[in-house]
Design a protein that fits this description.
HTH_Fis; five-stranded parallel β-sheet; Helicase, Ruva Protein, domain 3; Rossmann fold; alpha/beta; DNA-binding; 16 strands; single chain; activator
Length: 499
C-alpha cells in the first residue's frame, strides 16, 4: 500500500507539469525578438526567427504548436507569411503581433491566414502569456478532436466545451459499473483489481484472448483515474509496419520518409496528461520495442525527422492476446520492456470460463441491436440461452455480438428462438479437445485435422439447411461416409434426412 501511495503522489506531481509546447516567434527587430523570447521561455520552448525565410526553415525541421509573427517585416508581412504557413503547415495556431490596427489587415489576417489572435503593441507580459497559453491549448484540443478549429471559426471556449462534453459522456459510458458481469463471475475480481490500479499512475498490462473486452477495461481504467479529464487514445500496434507505427505514436516531419506528406503530431503528444492504450503490443518488432522502451524510461519522444525531443506525461495501458512471459523466454519480446509495461498485470477471462455472464451480456447486446436496427425483439428464449451457454465462443464477446445481430435479422417477432441460432452454436460447439487443440501449443496433428474436418461439416450443413445429399456432394463424400462422420463427431441437430 505504501508503494501504491508513493506512485500516486508522484503521479499527482507529474500531472501538474504540462508538456513543453514549442512556440515560433518571428520578428525582424532583434530587441523585440529577444523581449518576446525572454517572456515566453519560462513556460514554452521558444524558437526565434529574424525573418520569414528563416521561419520556414524552422518549420521544415521542427514541430511547432503556435506561431507569433510580427506584421511589419521587410521581406513580407506577417499576414503574407502566415497565409503561406496555413497552406503548408496548417496545424500550428497562428498569431499576429502589431502596433498597427488597420481594419483591412485584420480582415485579411482572419480570412486569408486563419489568424487566431492579434496581439497589440505595446504588449503586456501577462496578457501575452495568456494569449499564447490559449493558442497552445487550442492546438492540443484540435489534435484530440481532429478538427481545424481556427478555420471553422470556432472559439477556444467552444472547442473546450465540445471536448468536455465528449469526455463527460465517455466517462459515463465506460464506467467500471457498466462492464456487464454476474455477481459470481470471475470477471468481478479483475474489475476490483482494475479499480485499484486506476487510482494510481501505474502501467497496466491487460492479457486475454481476442474479443474478451481488453479495450473496454482500459477505457474504464482511464475514466476511473485522475487523468479522466485528459485524452484517451488508442493504437493497434499489430496493424502497422515499424516506420508508420513510429510516425503514429511519436509524430513525424513532412518528408521524413516516403509517404510522409505532412507534419504529424504523435499520439503520445495528443495523450499528454492522459492515457495511451497500446493494443496488440506483443506483435511489435524488437527494433520498435527498443524505441518504445526509451520513451517509457525517459518520458520523451522525438518525432521522425525532427531535431528536438519533446517531454510527455502519459500513462500507458497495454494489451495482448499472447503469453508475453513465454515471448520473453523465447527472446521475441524484451524483458526490460515487459517489466516496464506489466507493473500491474490483469487477465481477462474468456467467455467460456464465465457462462453465467452470457445471459446478461446477450440481453445488453440485444437491446443495443434493437436500437440500432429499429427492431423490437422482446428477449431471448430460455432454451436459446442454454444453448448459448453450452457453446465455447472462441471469438468471445465479439462472436456473441455477431451471433445476436444475425439472429435479430432472421427473427420474425417475439423472442429469439433456438431455430434462429447458427448451427455451430445450436449444436453446442466443437468437442472440447479438438477445439482447444486449434489454439493450444501442444496440439496434435490428429486433433487439428479433426477440428478442421468437423468445422467444415458444420458450416456445410448450415449452408445447405442440413440436407445430407448436398453436403456430401460439396465435401466429396458418399452419403454413408458423411453419416459416419456425423456420428463420429456427434453432430445431430439441424441434420435433415433426405432419403
Amino acid at each position: 500500500m505504501d508503494a501504491f501511495a508513493s506512485e500516486g503522489r508522484v503521479a499527482e506531481r507529474n500531472r501538474g507539469r504540462s508538456m513543453t509546447a514549442t512556440v515560433l516567434v518571428v520578428d525582424d527587430e532583434v530587441r523585440s525578438l529577444e523581449s518576446l523570447r525572454r517572456v515566453l521561455s519560462d513556460e514554452f520552448e521558444v524558437i526565434c526567427a529574424k525573418d520569414a525565410a528563416e521561419a520556414r526553415r524552422c518549420l521544415e525541421s521542427e514541430i511547432v504548436h503556435a506561431i507569433l509573427c510580427d506584421q511589419r517585416m521587410q521581406d513580407e508581412t506577417g499576414v503574407e507569411f502566415l497565409k503561406h504557413v496555413r497552406s503548408t503547415w496548417p496545424d500550428p495556431v497562428r498569431m499576429i503581433i502589431s502596433g498597427y490596427s488597420q481594419s483591412e489587415d485584420i480582415i485579411a489576417g482572419i480570412n486569408e491566414a486563419g489568424i487566431y489572435q492579434y496581439v497589440a503593441k505595446p504588449w503586456h507580459p501577462d496578457r501575452l502569456l495568456d494569449t499564447v497559453r490559449g493558442a497552445v491549448e487550442l492546438f492540443r484540443l484540435q489534435q484530440e478532436t481532429e478538427t481545424a478549429a481556427v478555420d471553422m471559426k470556432l472559439t477556444p471556449e467552444r472547442v473546450t466545451r465540445v471536448v468536455t462534453e465528449k469526455r463527460g459522456a465517455a466517462k459515463q459510458l465506460y464506467d467500471f459499473d457498466r462492464i456487464v458481469h454476474a455477481p459470481d463471475s470471475p470477471l468481478r475480481g479483475v474489475i476490483d483489481l482494475a479499480r485499484r490500479a486506476a487510482e494510481y499512475d501505474i502501467s497496466v498490462l491487460i492479457t486475454g484472448e481476442s474479443g474478451t473486452g481488453k479495450e473496454l477495461l482500459a477505457r474504464a481504467i482511464h475514466y476511473g483515474s485522475g487523468r479522466a479529464g485528459k485524452a484517451f487514445v488508442v493504437e493497434n500496434c499489430g496493424a502497422l509496419p515499424d516506420q508508420l507505427l513510429e510516425s503514429e505514436l511519436f509524430g513525424c516531419k513532412k518528408g521524413a520518409f516516403t509517404g510522409a506528406y505532412q507534419d504529424r503530431i504523435g499520439l503520445f503528444e495528443v495523450a499528454d496528461g492522459g492515457t495511451i492504450f497500446l493494443d496488440e503490443i506483443g506483435e511489435t518488432s524488437p527494433a520498435f520495442q527498443v524505441k518504445l522502451l526509451r520513451v517509457l524510461q525517459e518520458s520523451e519522444i522525438r518525432p521522425l525527422g525532427a531535431q528536438r525531443v519533446r517531454k510527455v506525461d502519459v500513462r500507458v495501458v497495454a494489451a495482448t492476446n499472447r503469453d508475453l512471459e513465454a515471448e520473453v523466454r523465447a527472446g521475441r519480446f524484451r524483458r526490460d520492456l515487459y517489466y516496464r509495461l506489466a507493473a500491474f498485470p490483469l487477465h481477462m477471462p474468456p467467455l467460456r470460463e464465465r457462462p453465467m455472464d452470457i445471459p446478461l451480456i446477450a440481453a445488453k447486446v440485444l437491446a443495443d441491436v434493437n436500437k440500432s436496427y429499429g427492431r423490437q425483439v422482446a428477449g431471448i428464449a430460455r432454451d436459446t440461452l442454454m444453448a448459448m451457454q453450452r457453446h465455447d465462443w472462441p471469438g468471445n464477446v465479439r462472436e456473441l455480438q455477431n451471433e445476436i445481430q444475425r439472429m435479430v435479422v432472421l427473427a420474425n417477432d417475439g423472442r429469439l428462438q433456438i431455430r434462429d441460432l447458427s448451427l455451430r452454436v445450436r449444436d453446442g460447439g466443437a468437442p472440447a479437445a479438438p477445439a482447444h487443440a486449434l489454439a493450444g501449443e501442444a496440439a496434435t496433428l490428429k486433433h487439428r485435422v479433426e477440428a478442421l474436418e468437423r468445422s467444415m461439416i458444420v458450416d456445410a450443413l448450415e449452408r445447405h439447411g442440413g440436407n445430407i445429399s448436398r453436403v456430401a456432394a460439396e465435401l466429396g463424400l458418399s452419403r454413408v461416409g458423411l453419416r459416419n462422420k456425423l456420428a463420429r463427431y456427434d453432430i445431430r441437430k439441424g441434420v435433415v434426412d433426405d432419403e
